[in-house]
Recover the amino acids of this structure.
């Protein structure tokens, strides 16, 4: 006696009656992502070429807001992003099992412009008639402020070196017919020396 074929829709019900779960039934034609595989999401401007361990994996675009590289085993990878005319960006990326690592590329630096090769020494310029102008003398000491204080005047300024303060003190001595006193001399961050000289009143 031939057995009647049961419809496929009754298989889960029969399996439940037999003590089997529906998840244990064989499934065909469905692709599953391997367990534990990881992914790297590159967030960058469109049009950048992406390489993973020197192998091309795609180009960033606007729709995907970058590029997603998935189905990767857990581990450490060398990610390189390139664009013509720009220096490549290289990043070491470590992804754990089943994790998605996001890498943001803010921008690539333009390639430096090569300097032109020297063409030899420049031709000497013709000197103008007449004596050469005398270069201005370097500023050795500058007075910023003259502040009245009890008993005299406080002169505040800056000098190129401690020795350059001495001619200024001599000039102040002639002006006041007194003996100026150097109260403070300290070196600033720009290399100059700030000074404070007290000049006694007449």
């Amino acid at each position: 006696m031939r057995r009647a074929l049961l419809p496929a829709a009754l298989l889960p019900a029969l399996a439940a009656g037999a003590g089997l779960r529906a998840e244990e039934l064989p499934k065909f034609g469905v692709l599953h992502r391997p367990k534990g595989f990881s992914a790297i999401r590159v967030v960058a401007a469109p049009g950048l070429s992406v390489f993973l361990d020197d192998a091309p994996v795609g180009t960033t675009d606007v729709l995907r807001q970058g590029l997603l590289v998935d189905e990767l085993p857990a581990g450490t990878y060398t990610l390189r992003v390139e664009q013509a005319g720009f220096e490549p960006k290289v990043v070491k990326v470590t992804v754990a099992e089943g994790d998605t690592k996001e890498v943001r590329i803010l921008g690539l630096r333009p390639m430096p412009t090569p300097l032109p090769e020297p063409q030899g020494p420049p031709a000497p310029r013709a000197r103008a008639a007449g004596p050469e102008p005398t270069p201005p003398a370097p500023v050795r000491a500058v007075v910023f402020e003259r502040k009245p204080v009890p008993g005299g005047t406080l002169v505040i300024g800056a000098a190129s070196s401690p020795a350059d303060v001495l001619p200024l003190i001599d000039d102040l001595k002639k002006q006041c017919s007194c003996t100026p006193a150097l109260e403070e001399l300290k070196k600033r961050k720009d290399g100059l020396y700030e000074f404070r000289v007290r000049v006694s009143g007449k």
About this structure: The helical segments are 11-17, 165-176.
